[in-house]
Write a structure and sequence with these properties.
Two copies of one chain form a homodimer.
Chain A: E1 4-8, H1 16-29, E2 33-38, H2 40-49, E3 57-61, H3 72-78, H4 83-92, E4 98-101, H5 105-116, E5 126-131, E6 138-141, H6 151-169, E7 175-179, H7 190-200, E8 205-210, E9 222-224, H8 227-253, H9 256-264, H10 266-276, E10 284-287, E11 293-295, H11 302-317, H12 320-330
Parallel strand pairs in A: 1-2, 1-4, 2-3, 4-11, 6-9, 7-8, 7-9
Antiparallel strand pairs in A: 5-6, 5-10, 10-11
Helix pairs in contact in A: 1-11, 3-5, 4-5, 6-7, 6-12
């Protein structure tokens, strides 16, 4: 049976047009069903303007929208009929297999935890970022949901991201590294040193501390860090990549010869941009909830949304949560269940 | 009177040849005196091979060398006649005005603290990184010396880096930002939230939280963070810049037309590389000690060393420490003197 994805069609910075286009692309390139959740009058009009209405695109009404800068917890408490809450309600009742949102990432996480609940053994669900590297992709977790962490939280991030990497990228034993400031186990802050001890005792393919410069070399498949560090890295990377290209562009613009050279090399620049484009993976998987969800960059275009819908469907098809539970069962003694409220969750605006 | 700089001529990954070349360049382009500290037989031979011996280059013997991966505190305790200890001993006795080292950065900091002591009001001396941006340079502090910090430490970093920015880049009121994961004051981890309150009460030109993506835009002059986050950022930036250029190079190599284009645009690439080259500022100033010091990248070439010697001399000439004390005096009530041992110092290998 075809999988069914709910798309929060009201979130994001570009407005619903881009999101609807992504859904249309996704249904054209696959047999997926997509439910667009939001203002059905507006969404219906956008869909009509696309001409080809598809029997696999459905409209589900939600009367409210969570704004990008709204406090996540206030938002989900006050806006019970928001598109993001409605999308997760569909997931909870079993009408859809996954949720995709380009809206307020904190509210997306908060709504997921509230409506679906946390996966067994997981005290802190989090957000995993997928980075391109010189070789394959690397999964970094957490990239913004949990800013003050304990070692057991970092260990859980490692397990979840490893399971995701296995399922999505087909890696048998993904190499898991702990992001630190020196490769020796004795280097790092208190959190990292204590987490290192947990990882060393685990069944994961733990390769020890890795440094920021290793991120893009492709010699590690999973990088573990707290959500503060991960979110800083995520945004620093975006900013640096933009600045590098901006500075290069300024230098090229200074001479006619260089501009001519750029025109000749243009295809290479286009391939390069495609290679480092966040749109390639569409978004960041939300891991540790009883369900499947992807949060996308607020600026996501239609291609990014299409890819996010594809990744969400793969998470559901390949049962990433079953894999997470399997990995937890191998290290049962290291997993300390705590039920403390997820006080730090959802603060970072990972995708805005 | 001409300033005099001590250069730890045995540290670094490239061997003393490159360091000596840097010193030769520095004395040719300025009236500085430079003392090369290390194995005088070897250094004398290298100097002789340069032909033009200068009366402004002096040799000072040290019988030991601290290795790049040695534990800083062990090293300075055991190797009292190491080149780095000797260089700071010269500074302590007043024979030189500043120290430059491309060796073990942790040991450099530890030696500085041991021999020169901490500046008044400073509980944690640290290392400031200088990044190129689309506009002027930005100073980030701390980039690796102090991995577990309290809010007052971050405040001290802000004061010291602001003074450095005033003195070195001629900024009257450098804009100081706190590196966080959202621009609102309420966002961040516990450390950042508490530090935000301190900065808000200060006389600094505090512009609030800034995000990683702001680093390279040039809209902030000083970015404050703990040494773990700063060191991760430093190494991530290095790794990303290399990966971006590597991926672009791979794409260009795929087609003849693109290669031809690259040749035409080559000057632009060279200017670009010069613009983002760490060698431009030569190294990272060590702030909060009773003296002037620069720690350089272990891979530093002669040009980087020459620039580091220049920046070190500017720190001495413009009395950066007097400026730091002036800024502290404006915010006296916010500066809490603590004399706890600098337990986390010098762990990060900021320049290796």
């Amino acid at each position: 049976m075809a999988l069914h994805i709910a798309l929060d069609a009201m979130g994001g910075d570009r407005g619903p047009e881009e999101l609807v286009s992504g859904a249309v692309l996704a249904t054209r390139e696959s047999d997926l069903e997509v439910s667009l959740v939001g203002d059905t009058v507006r969404l219906g009009a956008i869909l009509a303007s696309h001409g080809a209405s598809s029997p696999r695109i459905h409209l589900v009404h939600a009367s409210q929208v969570v704004d990008m800068d709204e406090s996540p917890f206030d938002a989900i408490r006050r806006k019970k009929d928001s598109s993001i809450m409605k999308a997760f309600a569909l997931h909870k009742e079993g009408s859809v297999d996954a949720v995709v949102s380009a809206g307020n990432s904190g509210a997306t996480l908060a709504a997921a935890i509230k409506l679906l609940g946390r996966l067994e053994h997981v005290s802190r669900p989090g957000i995993a970022g997928i980075y391109p590297t010189l070789k394959g992709p690397v999964v970094m977790m957490d990239v913004g949901a949990n800013v003050d962490c304990r070692p057991e939280h970092l260990f859980q991030f490692g397990v979840m991201a490893a399971a995701f990497s296995q399922v999505l990228f087909g890696l048998d034993r993904p190499r898991v590294g702990l992001l630190s400031i020196g490769e020796e186990g004795g280097k790092g802050n208190i959190l990292v040193k204590k987490s290192h001890e947990l990882f060393q005792q685990s069944s994961l393919n733990y390769i020890g501390n890795v440094e920021g410069r290793d991120t893009f070399q492709g010699d590690v498949d999973v990088m573990v860090c707290d959500g503060f560090v991960g979110n800083v890295c995520l945004k620093l990377s975006e900013g640096l990549a933009e600045a590098v290209m901006g500075m290069l562009g300024e230098e090229i613009a200074k001479s006619f010869k260089a501009k001519l050279g750029y025109l000749l090399a243009r295809d290479a620049f286009v391939s390069f941009k495609k290679r480092v484009d966040y749109a390639e993976y569409g978004g960041a998987p939300l891991l540790g909830i009883r369900g499947n969800a992807i949060v996308c960059h607020g600026r996501s275009n239609a291609v990014a949304m299409k890819n996010a819908i594809r990744v969400a469907s793969e998470m559901a098809r390949n049962k990433v949560n079953d894999r997470i539970l399997e990995l937890f069962s191998l290290d049962h003694r290291l997993v300390e269940q705590d039920d403390a409220p997820v006080a730090n969750a959802a603060g970072a605006g990972v995708t805005q």
